[in-house]
Specification:
By secondary structure, the protein is mostly helical. Helix content is 83%, strand content 0%. It starts with a helix and ends with a helix.
Amino acid sequence: MLRLAAASLAGTAIEFYDFFVYGTAAALVLGPLFFPTFSPVAATLAAFGTFGVGFVARPLGSILFGHFGDRRGRRPVLVASLLLTGASTVAVGCVPSYGSIGVAAPVLLLVLRFLQGLGLGGEWGGAVLLTAEHAPAGRRGLWSSFPQIGPAVGFLLANGVMLALSAALTDAQFAQWGWRVPFWVAGALALGGLWLRSSLVESPRFLEIDDHARVPLAEVAREHWRLVLLTAGALSVGYAIFYAVTTWSLAYGTERLGVGRTEMLACIMAAVVVKGSLTPLVALLSDRYGRRPLCLLGCTAAALWMFPMVALLATGAPLLMFLGFLGALLAFVTMFAVLGAYLPELYEPRVRCTGAAVGYNLGGVLGGALTPIVATALAEHSGRVPWGVGAYLTGVALFSLGCFALLPETRPVEVEVAVVEPVAR
């Protein structure tokens, strides 16, 4: 289990590195380079628009790769999705700017971002299911949390490289070629991920399925559509929080508040370190107390913290901004640390790869794709404190809280059957 969990963590970290490095570049440099005829705010919105395309592609990737995951196995999905995401990320670093090839530059950016999202949409389902379906029932939350640490590691890798380059290069050098380096690094990381995943074995739960779904998406749409919509709505707050902190606030802090690029990245990364470190602990609590109670707790905390977060951000003081980000990400991790176990347990094994991944990635469209765009537009018409952004994020949190309230618990029944009944005999 440890070897399998480590390989899943490394793979998701690499895939999310590819996805996050684009978000950081969109916040810092892509607007002026690829949309130079726009005003500064409009260029940032356009860059975030290409960023959002990746989220739109993710449900399509979960449908495509989920089909093969439910029909052919979880393991092949991991290799194919990693290849697609890695290749498209390296290609982004090679796209000439608008000044070199004109309108073809943002078009190419859009296409490659779509391919990134397509690959990542298949990654999460395969990595989580391979771990969850190997794990013993009483510790499924703990072991399934390792792929959920991957996004934090990927974010830290992406922003660590960006931070190092930002500190070492002048603004002109960073804008000219420095921002491309993290995209090229993705190629080496993808090769390392492929080597790690070459030794993984197929999920035993998948091998036990005698009657595989012929068209998993059709079965999910016919029998589990309500569950998919509820999970998408429930997860939207997590995406909204994460990308408000890691993407929108980066652009807002550097452009509106005049905070240095290095200071903003350092504040965000420090909060993400704490969030990633606490993920296994929260997941372990879900094995004891259940998945749904922790999700409800995290969602409630998010609704209460969004206004304080934007107020602390508006100070421009590094320590206060860090505290604002930390509170938001603690609410986030209370929900998302348990999803590696919770979502697979909600769906029957024959359509699990499609159902869990589609619900997870649709939540990304609702929360992740829209949040940087909406927040940037709302902040443009606010004073120094962007209260409109706080109101928007609070509204998303309340909406997700209602969706979580309608979802069932999964952990107690399964653990009781697996652990208590044999003892009673």
